[in-house]
Description:
The structure holds two protein chains of two kinds.
Chain A: E1 3-8, H1 18-28, H2 34-37, E2 41-45, H3 49-61, E3 64-68, E4 86-87, H4 99-109, H5 116-136, E5 151-152, E6 159-162, H6 168-186, E7 189-192, E8 195-203, E9 206-214, E10 220-224, E11 227-230, H7 251-258, E12 263-264, E13 269-275, E14 298-302, E15 319-320, H8 322-326, H9 336-348, E16 360-363, H10 365-371, H11 373-391, E17 400-409, E18 412-413, E19 426-428, H12 446-468, H13 479-498, H14 504-519, H15 525-545, H16 557-581, H17 605-608, E20 610-615, E21 624-629
Parallel strand pairs in A: 1-21, 2-3, 2-11, 3-7, 11-19
Antiparallel strand pairs in A: 4-6, 5-6, 8-9, 9-10, 12-18, 12-20, 13-17, 14-15, 14-16, 16-17, 20-21
Chain B: E1 5-14, E2 23-33, H1 38-52, E3 74-75, E4 78-79, E5 101-105, E6 114-116, E7 119-120, H2 123-130, H3 152-162, H4 169-173, H5 180-192, H6 200-213, H7 224-228, H8 236-251
Parallel strand pairs in B: 1-5
Antiparallel strand pairs in B: 1-2, 3-4, 3-5, 6-7
Helix pairs in contact in B: 2-6, 3-5, 5-6, 5-8, 6-8
Amino acid sequence: MVRVASDTLNSRVPDGPLQQKWDKHRFDLKLVNPANKRKFTVIVVGTGLAGGSAAASMAELGYNVKAFCFQDSPRRAHSIAAQGGINAAKNYQNDGDSVWRLFYDTLKGGDYRAREANVHRLAQVSTSIIDQCVSQGVPFAREYGGTLANRSFGGAQVSRTFYCRGQTGQQLLLGAYQAMMRQVGTGKVKLFARREMLELIVVDGLARGVVVRNLTTGQLETHTADAVVLCTGGYGNVYYLSTMAKGCNVTAAWRCARKGALFANPCYTQIHPTCIPVSGDYQSKLTLMSESLRNDGRVWVPLAKGDKRSPDQIPDAERDYYLERRYPSFGNLAPRDISSRAAKERCDAGNGVGDSGLAVFLDFRDAIKRDGEDVIRKKYGNLFHMYNKITAEDPYKQPMRIFPAVHYTMGGLWVDYNLMSNVPGLYVLGEANFSDHGANRLGASALMQGLSDGYFVLPYTIGDHLATSKLDKIRDDHPACMQAMQEAQNRINKLIAVQGKRSVDSFHRELGLLLWDKCGMARSRKGLTEAIDRIRGLRDEYWRDVRVLGSGTTLNQSLEKAGRVADFMEFAELLATDALHREESCGGHFREEYQTEEGEAARNDADFSYVGAWEYRGTEQEPVLHKEPLVFENVKPSTRSYK
Amino acid sequence: MSNHLLNLNLRVWRQSGPNDGGSFKTYQLSGVSTHMSFLEMLDVLNEQLIAQGEEPVAFDHDCREGICGMCSLMINGQAHGPDNATTTCQLHMRRFNDGDTVTIEPWRASAFPVLRDLVVDRSAFDRIIAAGGFVSVNTGNAPDGNSILVPGVRQEVAMDAAACIGCGACVAACKNASAMLFVSAKVSQLAVLPQGHPERNARVLNMVAQMDKEGFGSCTNTSECEAACPAEVSVSHIARLNREYLRASILAEN
Lengths: 643, 254
């Protein structure tokens, strides 16, 4: 039985009509006057779209910023790998888009499990993001006349996605990075690269600093500030294989959870339909093929089970374009959760292709015939190149083989409308929070959210906290700092002291495979119960038998991984617990017990229309569930249909 | 493509820290699938080393899909290995033959000091960007996106330059360890776009000054950088940087 807290969470969504909430709230928020801003220091952990944009914008306002990233440069954050694009309700195409439509599409796309007011604000500020990025020199695709170009993306029937070839994330990140580096040049941002956050420092209930490990020297460092902004991305690597960068981890967020921050909706994980299939057990990561490809590529499998003919030998009449068949109005642009499940359904039925049978075709034959190879190359050249590098197959000549893979995590630390967690002074932005995507994120919305949070939300909301809180100066030798430092050191010592036989990676692979099997695209009560049991066993084994060579006082990549996997071992149990408790199917969370006759997700609004935010009570203790009821004043939740 | 298994002789640079001299160490690795990426091959080597009680080889990597720019490695003397337009993480073992000896080294440049094994410090690149690789526009200042028209052709040139992933292969491949291709990519992107024009002169002067200060060598137009660049950034951007530099030096009003 789940322990449920008696009080409900207060999201602090302002009153008033939806369209006016953000404007009204910005007026109501307390301001820090320009001369006083320089008296405050803010820590930003992570330098992706959310962190980079937040650090730059706050420094521009006059705050002192300390920015941290575990990579060797802030420009490497995994936002850089986003390929397809960024949504904005500009309606430049005159095709019926509006703030309201973007809001509606995003809320519906999230299967009515997101907070209405947050999503509306996201749609409102989306247009400013494009303006800001254009001004920074982000080279968005253009029409010949010089105006901005758009394309369409999954879950939408308008063209509202702005893009830079297949490298949109890279260009947006470099825009934010450059804005931040400009502030590094002025001295307003102090940059700490190759640092990993290991503890949150909480003083008198307020987040006041972090303990980080200098990954080059092994030294632990204490950094204090007036607020901490966590922009540390998602936890998809708990599955070991995912489209995330190898370094992506849950450690910073989980360390905050252990200090009292609630972790919301961890079971909402996004399995992206178009990734390059696994080729062997040495596989270290999976590579995404952008959803934008589905604008021109058609997804199909052979009608006959086990048909091993080369795809060009299979005539149209013997092909099953199953997305076009099942979802005629959205076709190949059906949302990710739906497309992934449809691929799984065909492969489970025995119609999958490739050696493993765990793949479907994404075919550009018709688009190349219609538009010519040059047009396709211009749109997707770098993606085709990437596919060819990995598989040694030529997608201009034969269809891509694709299969779903873990890609994004909608869950994250719980935040209120101000993006502040329940630990005052701890703000959480971008993929690391839970707030805007509900149970499924639409394509081209992650970049939008990261930049919205960093450029246009946090700079307003953080001032309210700084202006109204009592923030005495904290010294590095404050007992809370010393204790956090000691906890981090003890953990490192403990990991090295195990001196077992198995490598960190071998444990991580085993954990990942277990989660993928039991808590991946389809979940069941039986499977999840078993998974929780096995995670506990694996965690015990980890602390008995992991082998971390070398010392804590040098650059030691095994030790870095060991700390992250130790946290994944704890977090995985919470993820499965959340999935077990949510007895409905919604978005990326599909419970086999709860589906319609056609195999679509059966949502249960009567019992589960809430955010599930979990309170950590100790590794061997049951977590406590805090609920934030979801209130829909403007859009009536309906059965999500893309047929 | 069918799968083959390779036996390899790996000569790997081992260096315990910045102050250690470092040396090559040879390892035998068998059963390497041709479907593996180069970094997956190193993962397998490291698993073998850990099992034997030897500390694994440290190397930088993150996205493993060719875009973050974190992976590096001189492979048989070539930055990012033998393939064109390919990062080390995208290089696959099908490019090698059974029985090959593969020599793996870090980037070699005095501006990129070795931190450990194959890991180098590339923070000089960040400092060059901080010196001027941006457009000074505060958040909230921007006019409507379509009020700044950029002809499609010009936009393509900017995007070609902006594709730089900041990996440092250009420096490693250059006999002078020059960073001109990296610097020119950013100068060029912002010089061809109208948004970059107000700071055009100061940008090129400041970025080149910082580049020199970091200890990178001079450019002698051998184009090794272009050949090694995984993002296919063209040396034509170096030519544009030189024009921009000359122009800025003559005008020198800002």
